Amino acid sequence: MKIYEDVYAYAGKILRIDLSSGEYFTEPTLKYVKEWLGAPGIAIKILYDELKPWVTPYDPSNKLIFGSGALIGTLAPGANKMNVSTLGPMTGGWASSCSDSYVGGQLKYAGFDSIVISGKAHKPIYLFINDNHIEIKDASHLWGKTTWQTLELIRKELNDPGLHIISIGPAGENLVRGACIIQDESRAFGRCGTGAVMGSKNLKALVAKGSGSIKVAKKEEFMKSVREVLKMYKKAKSPDKTYKYGTLYNFHTKQDVCGINYKNFQYLALPEDMVKEMDPRKVIDKFEVSHRSFPACGIHGCGRYLNINKGPYAGLKSECNQWETFSTLQTRLAIKEPTFMVKANALCNQLGIDVDAVGGAIGWAMECYQRGIINDKDTGGIKLNWGDEKVVLKLIEMIAYRQGFGNILSEGSYRASEIIGRNSSYYALHIKGQDLYEVCRGALGFCLGTTTSTRGGGHTTGAVACETSPGLDIEKARVMYGVDNPNKPLEYDGKAEMTFYIEILHRINNCLGICHINTVWWDIDLIGLPQIAILYSAATGWETSVEKLNEMAMRQLNLEKAFNLKFTDFERKDDMPTPRDLYESIPTGKLKGWRMDEKKFNKMLDEYYVIHGWNKKTGYPTRDTLARLGLDYVADDLGKIGKLGKNR
Which of 113, 339, 406, 598 has its CA 20 to 30 A from that of 220? Predict the structure, then answer.
């Protein structure tokens, strides 16, 4: 009997490995993809169905699931993202993150769409997947090494300088809650603490190498769609800017619209005398030596490799950071030295720790120090003054190794504030326990998508990006979102509808492996759901409409929501902005004096719940909504624990 049917676009198999026993087996990808599409869609189905409610993030029974997007390995523009999902330590619920990846393609070429890892190895190990050969190798000699050292040592050990790997650093080994997983040297599966889960399993690295290929069902139709999409990239304005500076090209726009995190969100724009000095684009112009990209990127890459040959970090050679590091470490901590962002980003990559986790914790600590809430006795004599780059770099290492005051900060700002007490929680800027880097005041669609995110904060699972985009084609945006004012960031009307659209787009992107920056989320002249549906249909041979994609995305979102309800006590209050965002006026800049209206925000949140078919009072999904998506058994589960939303 034939177990595995021939499939197109997908590799066809899911690999399951129990690290406790060393046993592994495979199952067909087709078991899941017709309803769950791929990568995080498959992951949430497995995690919800198979994790018992008593499982905790570091329990060996927890599962860590790596997935390659359904279109990775094809020529679909932008298809270069790999996903990792688990029960995470930052929020205690759904944890999911994507990274630009060579490993994702190699995994599919080896024959696997996803890897489901359970158990805990008896000693440090790494996985080597070489086509159908699965090997669990000793990693004792790698334990304690940085991700950069690990990459070099594994390449030498396997005698292959072209290998790509994903690994954890000391932060993951030490179960730092914000530990992340690094692809090679510079791309992170950021947020959520997935690196700590990997460390809890004694899994140091994953190496994949494949000699196979990915086939598409309708070659001519697929290639026609690819060519049409590439024409869109040539006509759009953003690809050239993104190619040159990555997401850092937005610097002046962010300054203009009050979108910069300065001194732990006390201010949302830099002082004018710092703007010229801190322009991150000048660092790229001065130190770039080469460009970096990933397979199938439609904009030909946003990475730049720098050689810092002058200044305090002379000798550093690293890929340049993106906007997130600049905002959460450079401006948040008021550090003027322009090349600091590159140094801090490289250090976080080496140690395997999320830039937002350290930025959030250190930002909280510096503001508490500023206000006299914590002192030198708490910090072990370290003075936490704004702008002290040496102290910040020292604290990053202390966090990764859980040393001294860094041990408290390693828990993230939310838990650190619980440990310190003294009313310090107000200055811990987080959503659902996950440190926040996103500026929520001044852009309400961006705010709503961030606060309602099932993974706890984060702008890549529903936050609207077009509200503050200069030169937005308003008519095109109106048609796409179905609202009148898509470019009015301070208006509450229509933001629930816009967030709903982006939640769908982001989940489809993540399941297919498409980078958000290659889509209408980043630039409305790039590809959207209609083009994605055509590409997916031609690649798989399954006619898939936009409506079908919407349904699958909503099924996934509702299961993410139910997963959180199964493992946490999240409800409506956890979808609200931080107190600072909700009650403080913007102090400087063009939006000086503007403050969020709590009643209007709650009305907007009501609209968001109604669109999703969730109960307005609690935010819980209703039985009708879950049944419509084929999740009747989930409704039964939620009913048993008293978390099923009442129908309106």
Answer: 113
The separation between the first and the last C-alpha atoms of the chain, rounded to the nearest angstrom, is 49
Picking from 30, 459, 518, the residue whose alpha carbon sits closest to that of residue 233 is: 518
Q: CA–CA separation, 99 vs 84, rounded Å?
A: 9
- In angstroms, rounded to a whole number, what is the distance separating the alpha carbons of residues 468 and 269? 14
* Residue indicated by tokens 């907007």: 604
Which pLDDT value is given to residue 300?
Answer: 85
**DSSP, residue by residue, 419-443:** HH-TTGGGG--EETTEEP-S--TT-
Q: How far apart are CA 537 and CA 184, in angstroms?
A: 32
Q: Which of 261, 157, 258, 140 is nearest to 204 (CA)?
A: 140
Task: Classify domain 258-431 at the CATH class level.
Answer: mainly alpha
What's the length of the chain? 648
**Tell me, what amino acid is at 131?**
D
In terms of DSSP H, where are the helices of 513-631?
A: 529-540, 546-567, 579-583, 598-612, 623-628
> At 469, is the secondary structure helix, strand, or coil?
coil
**437 with 328: CB under 8 angstroms?**
yes
Residue 648: which pLDDT band, with cuts at 50, 70 and 90?
A: low
- Per residue in 112-131, pLDDT tens? 999 999 999 999 999 999 99
Report the 10 Å Cβ neighbour count for 490: 14
Cα 214 to Cα 232: distance, rounded to the nearest angstrom: 25
Name the token pair of 625. Answer: 């909504």
Q: Where are the alpha helices (DSSP H) in 294-371?
A: 323-325, 340-351, 355-370
| CA atoms of 160 and 154, how far apart (whole Å) | 8
Residue 190: φ, ψ to 5°? -80, 175
Structure tokens at 99: 């990274």
Indicate if the pLDDT at residue 171 is higher than 50.
yes
For residue 59, give every residue at least 6 positions away whose Cβ sits within 8 Å of its Cβ, in sequence order, or none: none
- Please report where in the chains the tokens 């066809």 appear, as a residue: 12
Identify the pLDDT of residue 4. 53
3-state helix/strand/coil string of 112-127: EEEEEEECCCCCCEEE
For the CA atoms of 362, 368, 374, 380, the dihedral, rounded to the nearest 10 degrees, stands at 20
Torsion of CA 457, 461, 467, 473, to 10 degrees: 170
Fold of 13-209: Aldehyde Ferredoxin Oxidoreductase;  A, domain 1 (3.60.9)
Angle made by CA atoms 54, 58, 63, in degrees to the nearest 5: 80
Domain boundaries, the chain: 13-209, 258-431, 444-530+544-618
Predicted pLDDT at 3: 47
**Tokens standing for 618?**
């609690």
3-class DSSP state of 412:
helix
Which among 376, 322, 367 has a CA at the least distance from the CA of 345?
322
pLDDT, tens digit (0-9, with 9 covering 90-100), for 21-53:
999 999 999 999 999 999 999 999 999 999 999
Rg (the chain; Cα; Å): 23
Q: Which amino acid is residue 360, in one-letter code?
A: G
Amino acid at 137: K
Taking CA 472 as the corner, what is the angle to CA 471 and CA 476, rounded to the nearest 5 degrees? 140
From CA 342, how far away is CA 360, in angstroms rounded? Answer: 18
At 221, which helix (H) or strand (E)?
Answer: helix 219-235
Q: Thinking of the domain 444-530+544-618, which architecture would CATH place it in?
A: Orthogonal Bundle (1.10)
Query: What secondary structure letter does DSSP report for 16?
Result: E
pTM over 0.85: yes
Same CATH fold, 444-530+544-618 and 258-431? no
Give me the percent of the chain exceeding a pLDDT of 90.
Answer: 96
